[in-house]
Each structure stands twice: as C-alpha cells, then as structure tokens.
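Q: Hi! First time doing this. I have a protein sequence and I read that you can turn it into a structure. Is that right? Here it is:
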Amino acid sequence: MKVLHGQIHQSKVDLLDAVSPQEGAHVLVLVLEGELERAAARSARVVAGSPAAPAPVQEQAESQSPRTVADLMTAELVTVNPRLPVTEAMHLMAAQGVTSLLVEPGAAGDWGIMTMRDVLGRIVRANRAAELVAAGEMASRPLITVSPDTDIQACSALMLDRKIRRVVVAENGRPLGIVSDTDIFRAVEQHGWGGPQ
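A: Yes, that's right. Below is the predicted 3D structure, encoded as structure tokens:
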C-alpha cells in the first residue's frame, strides 16, 4: 500500500510533495495499487471537518444533467494485445490508474475485458502464475455492451442484473468508451435524480 499526498481534480490525482492539513483544499488519500479511479470518485466528498455540501439543486437545467451513457462514458480506453502477459497488463492498469482494460480481438475476433476482480478470481484464487497467463486468456467475453444513446437507468439496470461494475459503450462492434458504477453514482450525486421525466 502507498500513501499519496495529492489533490484531486476531476478524475485525476495530482501528486504533491507535502500537504498542510490547514490548507483545506488538499486531501490525504490512501490508495491501494490500481485504485486511482476510486480515489477520483472521492473528489466530490467534503474535506473532513468542513460543513456538509448542499444537496444537488433540482432546478438545474435538464441539458446539464447527463441522461445517456455517452454523456458519462470515459472515452480514453486502455487496450492491450491478447498475448500480453497478465503481469504486464496489471502494471499497465496500475500505471494508468484504471481498474479494467480492454483486450483486443484475438483469434475469436471479439473484444474482451480484464478487471481487477478477474485477477483476484482467475489468478489469485486459482493459484496461477500471472506471468504465465495471457491477457486474452483472462478476458471476459463476450463484452457486455450498450449503445451510446442508452439511458442511464437502463444501463444501471443492466449492470445490476448482470452483476457487473462497468459496461462498454460500443457502436457497430467497436468500443467507444466505458461507463462504471462510479460514473453513474457521481452523476446522480452531482445532478440528482428526478425519476421519470
């Protein structure tokens, strides 16, 4: 485990040399390897000791509130060759601060996804040597995908029904982005959820 002093901006953590607790604009984040996505999700939290943030204002313009997965998706996808050893894929995930990556089509011709949970289940629990396993062997296939115009409620239902934490946004079989449960939670926390419109 590493202790990082930093400042969170949107979905990025800027590392600092020292943090003065009196400054208030900085936070101390305990980050496990590969957990920067979760740390970034904490950016909306209030610094300890300060008053609670006000609830989202429901009168916000509807155009500001995300309604489809295209409004929320992360378009900067991290992809790997299916022959890449899992150890190298894990290092890439940690370096990029992501908890999943897409595995390019192999002989089967379809995309896959490799997550931290896959490593726990298919490497650690299975007691396998990660350096001897290829990312393509680890990847979950077929990808569970939604189109860019899928509304957030339908995407949430799919994720809950399939017991997954993220879904790939794709068009014509080509991945365009990824939406996680953290992305949806953050959108609801920031913009509210008014139910049926």
